[in-house]
Write a structure and sequence with these properties.
By secondary structure, the protein is mostly beta strands. It has a domain of 208 residues: Sandwich (Immunoglobulin-like). Helix content is 4%, strand content 53%. The strands form 5 sheets. The protein has a 24-stranded antiparallel beta barrel. Strands 1, 3, 6, 7, 8, 9, 12, 13 and 14 form a 9-stranded mixed β-sheet that branches. Strands 2-4-5-11-10 form a 5-stranded mixed β-sheet, with no helix packed on it. β29 and β30 form a beta hairpin. The longest helix is centred in the first third of the chain and has 18 residues. The N and C termini lie far apart (69 Å).
Length: 730
């Protein structure tokens, strides 16, 4: 059977190779030129000015999928202009008669994979350390992303100020974009500006992605090493790169947990200044994040903490510079991700253990690049809040690339109380990454330590963590191996670690054949194994998994897996009101999932899993249904149902239900309503948001957040907040 499977995979790979006339990884990198505008450019979605005709056209695109390496099926034309104030991008994206644009949403930072899209990437320093990407759908919604480390670290929460118009017409759709030079980072002292660049055209009805610089489908547009080059700039000036963004906020708190809270009015703001072409200073005073969406409830059926993503704008900007720890990819199995370990986890600043906000007096950050060096410095001060002490947080991060492909770095962090007590925590570490052989080989490592003093001033023992991993990912093979170690009391006070007191070994082998079949685009059969041992050398956990991922040509996907699992529980632990006793457990579990094409007006996804569970049984099912009316109304309903049945204990369930309604009056007037019910705690969380973008990066928010105890019919927390921000560029 294994021989037959191997023959099938080799045959599929050979068939795929015969279909593609161009190998994206071996094709030469293209080059384009920008032209200085000969007159004013009016951003209106109509490329009617004569100056557009004088610019060289970019019109040769190659498919990433479904037929990798073949020419794009529809014609696209792109022009690059500039003047002393702006960089201009114009695009005519031609379509067949009767074209109907697929526009799933008008919200800022949408998932542009769900519809038609145009994307462009700029790498001003041509080194992958500070890359700016813009993805635009035909309705004018934009997802702007700042990435680092050749796309391995991405920050989709970065927002730029720009002027954009899109226009849908009988022959396709048009994009016209003006980006002020102040929003990009580059070196104006260079004699000749040579930037990295790539351009993307997504035709969703065909499930087609095509790029100007040929790329295999395993790479994202912002992987700048796969891009081409852009030349033609002269006499560029960055300006002062100074902006101030004040805010004013009025709030009305109520609820049983806010009985002593008073109505409030606050002011504060942020300042941004470009110290050098690649280095930025950010200052914040009386920092407020009341407009940020609430955390979604998650079901945790493990004995370890859950990682919750950062959503606050100040901490997300240039977040890639501070990244230290386990890194992963959505399309590559690496055995561990930032959800397992991050030496710096910004949610430690200004948020309590249960996610409740803590007052932030202010702080500052210097971040960016200077030649081969990436630098990040952060200092934040929080205020006392009830029994929570005021604290100061300091982080320093340095990375450099002494030779191409090799990155070395270090991080230091300090967390200390500022009320006179002696409690401190220090984190520090060094890391090294090496990428070679056309980007297919990646070696990663780090060594980190923690130490400090408790509130009485007693020194805490130094504790260590380390990692060494190596992986190979080409268009067909996927091989990865990892070893990690964490001391029992390793405790990064400004970081996150899911599991300590372990040695972790991981290995996986998989392939990604691309058969020339009518229905299936790509297969991904694989095996992987995790082994965790404790300091005494005893095995605590072993997972052996076999799985299969399937990408279909219509844009849907499915996955299947089966896991043989062993757990040695040394100390009893509780999950959702039931107790797992100490002992040795062996059981098998499996899962299956399917996601329909999300570009359709009605789409759905579901995952079913279960099997053994610590001497008993577990069954889980979760799913969501998405429906949209045009591109202005989007409704999503989700459910997560879990049942645990352990011997001698009552059956327990853990259910979470949610609904999200978005209504978009335009790309600048957005409303959303999110409601989630946690059956275990019998609480309902509601978040209603109105957002008016009245000027670039300037907002008016009206937000209602409520947490209600359904069992006792009482409101625990309720906040009504009106917040206004205004960006003043200089």
């Amino acid at each position: 059977m294994l021989t037959a499977l191997g023959a099938l995979l080799v045959s599929a790979a050979q068939t795929s190779a015969q279909v593609a006339p161009l190998d994206p990884d071996l094709a030469p990198r293209p080059s384009a030129r920008a032209a200085r505008a000969t007159g004013p450019v009016r951003v209106d979605g109509v490329l009617s000015e004569d100056t557009w005709a004088a610019a060289p056209v970019i019109d040769e695109f190659w498919q990433q999928k479904p037929f990798t390496g073949e020419p794009a099926s529809e014609r696209s034309e792109v022009w690059i202009l500039y003047d002393d104030r702006n960089l201009y991008i114009g695009a005519e994206l031609h379509e067949q008669p009767g074209y109907r644009a697929i526009i799933p949403t008008l919200q800022r930072d949408p998932n542009t994979r769900d519809g038609d899209a145009f994307g462009i990437m700029f790498d001003p320093f041509l080194d992958g350390k500070l890359v700016f990407s813009f993805f635009i759908n035909p309705g004018g919604a934009v997802r702007d992303i700042q990435t680092a480390d050749d796309g391995r670290i991405n920050n989709p929460a970065w927002d730029a100020a720009f002027d954009l118009r899109t226009r849908i017409h009988d022959a396709g759709w048009t994009v016209e974009l003006a980006i002020p030079w102040s929003q990009l980072r580059f070196d104006p002292t260079q004699g000749e500006q040579v930037w990295g660049m790539n351009v993307l055209r997504r035709i969703r009805r065909k499930n087609e992605d095509a790029t100007w610089a040929p790329m295999d489908r395993q790479w994202q547009l912002y992987v700048s090493s796969r891009g081409g080059t852009l030349r033609g700039f002269d006499s560029l000036e960055t300006g002062r790169n100074l902006s101030i963004k004040p805010f004013a906020l009025a709030s009305e708190p109520s609820g049983t947990l806010q009985s002593e809270a008073e109505r409030g009015f606050e002011v504060g703001g942020d300042l941004k200044y470009g110290i050098t072409p690649g280095m930025t200073l950010d200052l914040t005073v009386n920092t407020d994040f009341s407009q940020v969406e609430v955390d979604q409830e998650q079901v945790n059926l493990t004995r370890f903490s859950l990682f919750l993503p950062e959503k606050r704008e100040f901490f997300l900007e240039n977040a890639g510079v501070f990244q230290f720890g386990d890194q992963g990819s959505s399309r590559t199995r690496t055995g561990a991700t930032s959800r397992d370990f991050s030496l710096f986890y910004s949610r430690r600043i200004g948020l309590g253990g249960n996610g409740t906000p803590l007052p932030i007096l202010g702080g500052g950050r210097v971040s960016g690049t200077a030649g081969p060096v990436s630098l990040g410095l952060l200092n934040m001060q929080t205020l006392r809040d009830g029994e929570v002490d005021p604290e100061n947080f300091t982080v320093a991060r340095l990375r450099t690339e002494p030779v191409p492909g090799l990155t070395l770095g270090g991080l230091f962090g300090n967390r200390s109380t500022t009320d006179g007590s002696s409690a401190t925590n220090q984190s520090y570490g060094v890391d090294a990454d090496f990428q070679a052989l056309n980007g297919y080989l990646l070696v990663q490592s780090y060594l980190a330590g923690t130490q400090g003093r408790d509130a009485e001033g007693t020194p805490l023992a130094r504790q260590w963590a380390g990692r060494l991993s190596a992986g190979w990912r080409d268009p067909f093979w996927e091989i990865f191996a990892l070893y990690r170690h964490f001391d029992e009391d390793f405790d990064p006070g400004i970081g996150f670690v899911r599991r300590t007191g372990i040695d972790h070994g991981y290995a996986t082998v998989g392939v990604r054949p691309r058969p020339n079949w009518p229905v299936i685009l790509e297969l991904n059969p694989y095996v992987e194994s995790h082994v965790y041992t404790n300091p005494a050398g005893l095995m605590e956990t072993r997972l052996l998994t076999g799985g299969l991922g399937v990408d279909f040509r219509d844009g849907s996907n499915a996955s299947f897996s089966a896991t043989d699992r062993f757990e040695h529980v040394f100390e009893p632990f509780a999950v959702r009101g039931v107790e797992v006793a100490a002992g040795r457990y062996g059981f098998v579990e499996g899962s299956a999932s399917y996601q329909t094409n999300r570009a359709r007006r009605l789409s759905a996804g579901a995952t079913v899993g279960g099997g053994g569970y610590f001497g008993g049984d577990r069954f889980s099912v979760r799913g969501d249904v998405r429906g949209r009316i045009g591109h202005q109304v989007l409704l999503q309903i989700s459910a997560n149902h879990n049942v645990i049945d352990l011997p001698g204990q009552p059956e327990t369930t853990a259910d979470v239900y949610g609904a999200n309604l978005d209504v978009f009056f335009s790309v600048n007037v957005l409303t959303s309503a999110f409601v989630q019910y946690n059956a275990a705690s019998e609480e309902v969380v509601t978040n209603l948001r109105f957002r008016w973008i009245h000027a670039p990066l300037s907002d008016l928010f009206l937000v209602l957040t409520e947490r209600r105890d359904v069992a006792n019919n009482q409101v625990l927390d309720r906040f009504i907040t009106l917040k206004v921000t205004k960006l003043f560029p200089f």
